[in-house]
Amino acid sequence: MAAGTIRYWAAAKAAAGTAEEPYTAATLAEALDAVRERHPGELSRVLQRCSFLIDGNPVGTRGHETVRLAEGGTVEVLPPFAGG
Fold first, then answer.
1. H-helix or E-strand containing 4?
2. Can you say whether residue 74 is alpha, beta or left, with left for phi > 0 and alpha for psi between -120 and 50 degrees?
């Protein structure tokens, strides 16, 4: 297990009610499962549309269960943005 920070942006931040919170998880899938448990409802729906960066690197289409999290790492939760 690794401990780090999840940062929420735009609609994800509004749905979570916070800009960031800690995680303790081995994979992105585990971290997101814990987020859904803590914030049932709107955030779970927003997460379905989000992209994720792990320590600045895009997750892309990789399975979230295969994305390992590092101690002290950062998960960025990025909903689709409008405009430019």
1. strand 2-8
2. beta
Considering the chain, what is the average pLDDT of its residues? 95
Q: Give residue for tokens 């950062």.
A: 74
Report pTM: 0.92
Q: What is the pLDDT of residues 20-40, one digit of tens each?
A: 999 999 999 999 999 999 998
Taking the C-alpha atoms of residue 11 and residue 77, their distance in angstroms, rounded to an integer, is 10
Q: Please enumerate, as own/partner, the contacts of 68-72 that have beta carbons within 8 Å and a separation of 24 or more.
A: 68/2, 68/26, 68/27, 69/2, 69/4, 69/23, 69/25, 69/26, 69/27, 69/28, 69/31, 70/2, 70/4, 71/2, 71/3, 71/4, 72/2, 72/3, 72/4
